[in-house]
Amino acid sequence: MEKTFLIATHNMKKRNELLRILEPLGIDVKTDEELGITLSDVEETGETFYENALLKAQSGCRESGLPCVADDSGLMVDYLAGAPGVYSARFAGEHGNDAKNNAKLLKLLKDVPEEERTARFVSVTCCAFPDGTVLTARGECVGKIGYEEIGEGGFGYDPVFMVNGKSFAEISDEEKDSLSHRGKSLAVLSQKLRELYV
Amino acid sequence: MEKTFLIATHNMKKRNELLRILEPLGIDVKTDEELGITLSDVEETGETFYENALLKAQSGCRESGLPCVADDSGLMVDYLAGAPGVYSARFAGEHGNDAKNNAKLLKLLKDVPEEERTARFVSVTCCAFPDGTVLTARGECVGKIGYEEIGEGGFGYDPVFMVNGKSFAEISDEEKDSLSHRGKSLAVLSQKLRELYV
């Protein structure tokens, strides 16, 4: 079986998280740049994380001829009926950014009491193989939305996502891998990959 | 082919909308009560309207042995990244109601300018047949969220959903059938049913 996998992401911090977890499997993970190709931008038109992750993994696999891992993830806030969900990256509009997304979220939850501020980070990872095989895994991390941005690490909604009294932007990479939605989802995916390789 | 169809809904206003549109097809539509049976409550666990409508239609068909029409619908507010969506009925919590849902929505959109108040009502209808055939249709109606509840008709989010300067709670049943998400979705579904019967 192939030992070089493509990782379909342009988000360098996401890529580094993925690399950190998949390398111990003995899988050589490369981005499209490292392979000297350029993946098409995939429009994330799915209604669910699963649809988007699958779209990206299958497109990357088709274009590279290699097994391709892709991830789709986002924040689901209970008070907002699961929003921003698949629209997490675009919550403050097409020209938004992390700071604008977090500011919008904090404003919407301004007067909301602590017990109603529950939220989940969700990650779905897919690995698509050239023979059509698809492996999928889902991970969730439950927390609460804080009242302000805290911490300098992480990315996205990490500074407002609180678990055990700390924000995701305050904890180490190792702590985050063990707690986080993406860490859990990749742990399940790498277990499924291991079974394929035995 | 069967001429008696089951309608899977406990919402009487929804049932009346469905009846009004399907009766002209010569299809005798009955609720579970009228058939002397009691459908199990289907947990709407789907992530999409389509999944929920399909769950309800297939469950109703299985339990009655009749073709069964079901609908899932909700409001998708652009500023809220598509929320409340599949959670529309439960937006203000399990013990909420239309008034609480509308109050919550208006509060979340309090300072939001008119051009950012765009929203869509979405309806997906499914008809499941005992032989496993499934017909599906989707309808959308684009509008804006108003600044207060207006009108005495309709149900759900109708009093805050504005199209052409009027709320959905102000217009006649006939106007609503021609404009609404459910009207459009049922028009497509009844067209598909007609083709089956020719």
Structural commentary:
Two copies of one chain form a homodimer. Chain A has 198 residues and is α/β, with parallel strands linked by helices. Chain A has one domain (4-197): Maf protein. Chain A contains five helices and seven strands, in the order βαβαβαββββαα. The first copy, chain A, has a seven-stranded mixed beta sheet with strand order 2-1-3-4-5-6-7. In chain A, helix 1 (12-22) packs across helix 5 and helix 4 (173-179) packs across helix 5 (181-197). The longest helix of chain A has 17 residues, at 181-197. Chain A is globular and about 50 Å long. The relative contact order of chain A is 0.16.
Task: Offer a quick outline of the entry.
Chain A has 198 residues and is α/β, with parallel strands linked by helices. The first copy, chain A, is 31% helix and 23% strand.
Task: Lay out the secondary structure.
Two copies of one chain form a homodimer.
Chain A (H helix, E strand, L loop, with lengths): L3 E4 L4 H11 L5 E3 L18 H16 L3 E10 L20 H11 L9 E11 L5 E12 L15 E3 L2 E2 L5 H7 L1 H17 L1
Parallel strand pairs in A: 1-2, 1-3
Antiparallel strand pairs in A: 3-4, 4-5, 5-6, 6-7
Helix pairs in contact in A: 1-5, 4-5
- If strands are numbered along the chain, what order do they take across the biggest sheet of chain A? 2-1-3-4-5-6-7
| Chains forming the largest contact | A-B, 14 and 14 residues
How much helical structure, as a percent, in the residues of chain A?
A: 25-40%
Globally, the shape of chain A reads globular
CATH architecture of chain A: Alpha-Beta Complex
Mean pLDDT of chain A comes to: 90
Number of strands of chain A: 7
Give the C-level CATH assignment of chain A: Alpha Beta
Q: Quaternary state, please? A: homodimer
Order of helices and strands of chain A: EHEHEHEEEEHH
**Major sheet details of chain A:** 7 strands, mixed
By helix and strand content of chain A, what is the structural category?
Answer: alpha/beta
Q: Determine the CATH topology of chain A.
A: Maf protein
CA radius of gyration of chain A is: 17 Å
- Our estimate of the beta-strand percent of chain A is 15-25%
Poorly predicted spans of chain A: none
Distance between the termini of chain A: 11 Å
* Total of domains of chain A: 1
Count of separate DSSP helical elements of chain A: 5
